[in-house]
## 1
Amino acid sequence: MGQTVSPTLSAPASPALSIRSLSVSFARREADIRAVQQVSLEVGPRECVGIVGESGSGKTQMFMAAMGLLPSNATPSGSVLFEGEELLAADARHLNRVRGSKLTMIFQDPMTSLTPHLQIGTQLAEVLVCHSHLSWSEARTAAHRMLDRVRVAEPARRLKQYPHELSGGLRQRVMIAMSLLCEPTLVIADEPTTALDVTIQAEILDLLRAMRDEAGMALVLISHDLAAVAGIADRIVVMYAGRIIESGATAELLRQPRHPYSAALINCIPTVSGPLLARLPTLPGQPPQPGDSIEGCAFAPRCPRAAERCRIERPPLQDVGSAAQVACHFPLST
Amino acid sequence: MNARFHDFAHRLRANPGALFALAIIVALTALTVFGPRINPNGIETLDWLHMAAAPSLQSAHWFGTDRLGRDLYARTLEGARVSLSIGLVASAVSLLIGIGYGAVAGYVGGRTDHLMMRIIEILSGLPLIFFVIFLTVIFGRNESLLFFSIGAVGWLTMARIVRGQTLSIRRREFIEAAIASGAGTGRIIFKHVIPNVIGPVIVYATLTVPQIMMFESFLSFLGLGIQEPRASLGSLIADGAGEMEAAPWILLIPGGFLAALLLCLNIVGDGLRDALDAKES
Amino acid sequence: MLRYFLMRLGSAIPTLFIIVTIAFFLTRAAPGGPFDQEQTLPPEIMANLQAAYGLDQPILVQYGHYLGALLHGDFGPSFKYKDFTVTELIGQGFPVTLQLGAIALALALGAGIPAGTLAALRRHAAADYATMSLAVVGIAIPSFVVLPFLGLLFGIYLHWLPVAGWEPGSLRHLVLPVIALALPPLSVIARLVRASMLEVLGSHFIRTAFAKGLPLRTVILRHALRPALLPVAGYLAPAVASIMTGSLVVESIAGLPGIGRYLVQGALNRDYTLVLGMVILYSTLLIVMGLLVDLLYAWLDPRVALGR
């Protein structure tokens, strides 16, 4: 169920990541929680895809499933192919060969995502020692070079330091460096700037863009902040309550969103130009809790355009125009 | 309050191991109390004809006899009675001390609390047995010394727990309301703080009893505790250890009794603590 | 790091001094003397004995003598074992006790940590329940019950190991006592490690480690173990105290010629100098343990050493 969201670039090469009908549910005492429902998505080899949604939309869990990082009470179903090989329920050896080297992930909390009792240099070098079978000194040299690339000042000193001696922004740079060491095919960045100061956020996003241009890998950028994603993504995918509700090329989606939710998100972005508003526009209401079972369109309770049909029948994801999709009974017309 | 108790009881009922252990404790305690009525041999009566006799249900000595011909059934039950009573009484005493100490420390707070906790820290670090040995050197073997030192074992943990609970409760609104309505400090501690602290107290009280029993047996085993002709499980085990090769039952029976009691008390205590923790989180 | 160590050392020495002083004055202040147990002696002989042991001097002088002797490692003569000084008795017995205790501690750590880790990794599986059940048994049942049982089973019925006795350099005689001694701290450590490891495994940095494709063994050994061991470091001093306490009983039952035996005898015989010497020895050991534990904390968590 659900059409596959295809890359906008007409790349003849096979996709780096191909997610098909992925569902993730968490076992709870009273009832299972379905965090991700029947999501299908493809990421092309050099593509940058932005995944946007509020917390609880399932955007993070989707990729946790791909990386095999779901907790033990979570059950994924469907298929996730990376470079043509199935990741879900792959055996540990295959999974460990892929992740950390060709498929890497940057997490949202740099303050707690690095091991406190190991030096930065060790944590970087071990990736190379493990995957590329370098010696420890060779790996440290490579780590030094990578820290240069991600524009960390005084890399030699930093290599010997411990995570708590670095600022949040620096730690995130280290995480980025860690993800690039083995020349990955796809990097997943899960809210990489959310925990950082606003001024640092821009720097990190710039860094990600620069790295992607240099290294030419595919990039998935997950965020609740549409503005952050807009500057860097080729294509944007909007998620709500565990499903994809719209996707399309960035420029087009921003100019003419089709789903009322996307329109509302864009509306919420404060702009420097334009009329001075007395009050920033917000989206009324709350997204549904991951545990709620919903009939009809999940967005209906908050949608200004909702009709009776929306509350009964869930709109399927359909192709509109070239390489764009929307799940809405009454999409905004172009 | 009632809802919390319900949850707690439910979780406890779901723990078959703890319930089984509880049943064993009740059974053994009943045996201790009613056992002698069934087979009335004196604990000091010497049976010259049956010295170090093996246990047998046919003979008059169900559990056998020791080296001097004393009936092991009677002596084991007596020993169990002594150990249990000391355990319960000393626990009750250290409980009271601990609760009082902890409640005061937690309620008064500030530097008093700090000092009181430092004292506990230092005392916790000392292995009590050395303290007891030291006192024994000075004052000689003395039963009041025994009780004093045993009572000293249990109150430390209880004081810590109660202080922690008091601290967290003190900050809650209803205490502020009570203070605002003019209730005195003592009254507040008794009517408000203590009832809310009762849960963890019961749990750790259950864990204190085996701790104290173990300590008393330990002292009695070494000869520093209960002395002849009275018996405690510890001293019986000491006797038995000496006769291990020839008459193993003299060791096995009191040893098994003590092991069973301690094990079951610990299991019940753990079960209560798990039921409590799960509720709190 | 060095400064931190020196600071801790600096506060340990006064503590020891206070202990020695209090202990000394308590023994001298006690009612009755060390010779009360003997048959009543004629007063002149009593006076001679008192003089010989220096007991007729004013108490502060005695204190001074004691301290002075202490700094030379002389604990004074034993009142009971007339031919020996306390120092000699300690010299004979301490190596045995030290050997026993050190091996027991090593066993408690060496078996307890892997057991707890295994239980955490196989949570709610058979290995977990089995390990934790054994742990409850290990904690609940005292060593003076366990050792005779073990002796009965392995010594008398199975004839695998000797029940009691001691030959210098013989390891076989240590097996059962070490097991009985190590069992309680081993069980506590296993439980601590299980709980701690479960918590650490839920951390973000462990998630990162897995995301890097590191094998499970590396994640556990290099990333998870050190933070998980923090509570164990906190338990080390009580563990040593527990082993010290247990050694009294284990040495008695197994007939091992260690100082634990002397301590108990010293109490029953009211042998002041012996007990005093023992108390000082054990206190020193505990304080040294405390220092080592502090150092260990600093290594396990670099933030401590840097003064955070």
## 2
Amino acid sequence: MARLELEALSKHFGHTVAVREVSLSVGDGEFVVLLGPSGCGKTTTLRMIAGFVTPTGGRVRLGAEDVTALPPWKRNTGMVFQSYALFPHLTVAQNVAFGLEMRSVPRPEIAPRVVEALRLVRLEGLSERLPRQLSGGQQQRVALARALVIRPDVLLLDEPLSNLDAKLRETVRVEIRELQRQLAITTVMVTHDQEEALIMADRLVVMSDGAVRQVGTQQELYERPADRFVAGFVGRSNLLPGTVIGPGQFETAGGIAVACTTDGAPGPAVMALRPERLVLGPAVSTLVNRVSGTVELIGYLGAYIDVHVRLTSGDRIVVSQPNRADGQTPKEGDIVEVGWSREAAVVVPDEDAARPQT
Amino acid sequence: MAGWIGTVDRRTLGRWAWNGAAGVALGFILLPLVFVTWLAFFEQAIPAFPPRGYSLKWFAAIAENQKFVDGFWLSLQVAVVAMVIGLLIGVPAALCLTRYRFAGREPLGNLLLLPLVVPGIVLGTTLYVFHVEATIWTGWPILGSIGALVAGHILLVVPWSVRLVSASLAGVDRTVEEAAQNLGAPPLTTFFRVTLPAIRPGIVAAGLFGFVVSFGNLEMSLFLVGAGRTTLPITILQYLEWRIDPTIAAVSVLQILLIGAAMIVTDRFVRLSRVV
């Protein structure tokens, strides 16, 4: 187990940039998740850590060692592949023993370590089975045991849950997280599923277009998104473009003046409003920001009710209300007043406006 | 109700038609084999129906005929050596063709399949002319040598091994190889521990087909054998020029049994129906 450092890691395929100067420091025993939509460069980054992709720039440091130039088989990383990639002709025990044999671990030592690894993932009884005789969830755990048994410096998880059904995914992600904590193993996981990422990670790295958009804890990403992309990708946001007028003052493109906490320079920006921080009904009167609008759609989600409101400015926003037994839900067509506090209005730079259109 | 019975009837009819067609096709393939086998046990020297009686003497005649025995051993040796060398060329070639993108990859792939397309007679003549020229140029005894014969047969084996091994390689999950490397296996170890077991059925099938094609080859071999050295198919042909007694049928039966045995043994290691 060790620290993992990425320094300005880049990968260009011809003229396309897959990964753009990613720098990241993963602490000993930390669980970091690379999160982003498909094609954002997260998997390429993971494959550069494992050594399957040669970076065109930057370095990978594992512990005290610079492993940038080392081939995969000389790096001590344990990877769990999306497809599990078990050796189909070897039994579960032989699969798990493979990495130990490659490391020339003495034979009498291999068997107990394999047993121990299979016990960790609760597969003791299946050691003589072939992979095709196992369920998807069992195969996934064999892949995990095979990666853990070699005591890697860093555990790499490439969308490890995406091939499991939804119910199983919920339990397995908690199991992996607990196992990772128990072994205190430095871990990097790649996923496009933000719920999975939020539940499992110590820290998250949000990526898009090959670049890191923001690194932070769940709370940091949610409460203080660095830009429009993060605000829209992590959780839900109503994004209203507009202009920063001065400190604490924002005006939407539709002409709503909003009191907020921005200290950014005047200029174009985007205001992100979390649906659950918006208020409807009598409580609105105490809030600094109030706008009236018409209810256009009610979305009934069980625990929550989404109220889609067309504001007088023309913008449409979603207000999410807890579904309480005594609660009064507006009907479609009602005129309502929507309110939010100064703190609820998060103003972020609009990178889409700043960047030339492609 | 009537409609329901109608569909069942149609389905049953379809199944009968299907089985019938399969039966006719199978009979078409098997009938010559049945007749050859039957003929091998005829008593009289001139085949005529119905047989006058049955005898095993034609099988005994093979063993007494040194030409058949020599031809059998030569064919066996040539086929085994050609199969092994053909695989040693074909497997790495298939690996390169499926795994790497390089200039001239497709032409090279087609070139390796060419011996399958060129008629045996043409291949034989061409090789003969080439051997004559090569013998004149180098002064070495290439023409009619055993080496030249084996080299020709390797040409027959290579297309089969490239084709069948490529097909198996296409089905190998590359991430499994990556997993091996991630666990500390260098490329060569990865090949022998992971890739090779995965393509073993393809290699076994390629070996079998290469062997059968080489063992039974007549047209090309006609041009390549030297004086006093003939393969089994050529010995059969030469024998047929003067006699038509059931010895030939008996030889054919032995050949069918040999190849059949090879297929059954192979099938024990890999299900042939799954790779071919």
